[in-house]
């Protein structure tokens, strides 16, 4: 009986130490960091930066998060102007829908986020798609947001206006209606 009591005391002490450690970690690092993986937080930050740039009509802020290769596309300015003209209102909320992280190992190692967000403003609802390479060993000029598409939620329901990943093309740049 004495052995069983000693074992139970050790178990209780160890559980107490473990719970205390968890509480200290949550206090030091915050609970938000435990809710979502870093890729999800990065996608949310990028979405917020895109929205901020659109709300302020700040093309330079948008360009800062684009991949270098996107900055060289012929229709970059057309895409930026399209997004700036399309986006209206003050942000109410945005929510990730179907965003995910992809990692490819090997010689051509890459890590990317494929994101889809529903955005609500006080005047319109939108769907934002973007692809972001965090790492691309094959082409470092694609690191950053390498494709972006903003459409109204109403037009997104139209089958002829699919998201970025709906066709086999590797889309580089900012969507505008001339893409077809």
**DSSP summary: helix tally:** 7
Structural class: alpha+beta
Mean pLDDT: 82
**Beta fraction:** 25-35%
Radius of gyration: 22 Å
Ranges with pLDDT <50 over ≥5 residues?
31-35
Q: Would you give an account of this structure?
A:
This protein has about 180 residues and is an alpha+beta fold. The protein contains seven helices and six strands. Strands 1, 2, 3, 4, 5 and 6 form a six-stranded mixed β-sheet that branches. The longest helix has 28 residues, at about 1-30. It starts with a helix and ends in a 6-residue tail after the last strand. About 20% of the residues are buried. The model is unreliable at about 30-35 (pLDDT under 50).
What are the key terms here?
180 residues, alpha+beta, six-stranded mixed sheet, 7 helices, elongated
């Amino acid at each position: 009986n004495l052995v069983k009591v000693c074992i139970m005391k050790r178990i209780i002490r160890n559980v107490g130490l473990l719970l205390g450690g968890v509480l200290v970690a949550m206090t030091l690092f915050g609970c938000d960091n435990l809710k979502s993986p870093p890729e999800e937080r990065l996608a949310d930050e990028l979405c917020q930066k895109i929205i901020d740039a659109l709300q302020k009509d700040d093309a330079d802020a948008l360009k800062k998060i684009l991949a270098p290769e996107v900055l060289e596309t012929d229709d970059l300015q057309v895409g930026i102007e399209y997004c700036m003209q399309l986006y209206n209102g003050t942000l109410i909320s945005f929510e990730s829908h179907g965003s995910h992280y992809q990692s490819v190992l090997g010689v051509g190692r890459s890590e990317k986020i494929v994101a889809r967000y529903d955005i609500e403003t006080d005047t319109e609802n939108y769907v934002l798609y973007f692809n972001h390479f965090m790492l691309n060993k094959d082409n470092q000029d694609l690191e950053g947001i390498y494709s972006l598409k903003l459409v109204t939620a109403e037009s997104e329901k139209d089958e002829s206006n699919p998201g970025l990943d709906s066709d086999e093309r590797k889309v580089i740049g900012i969507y505008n209606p001339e893409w077809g």
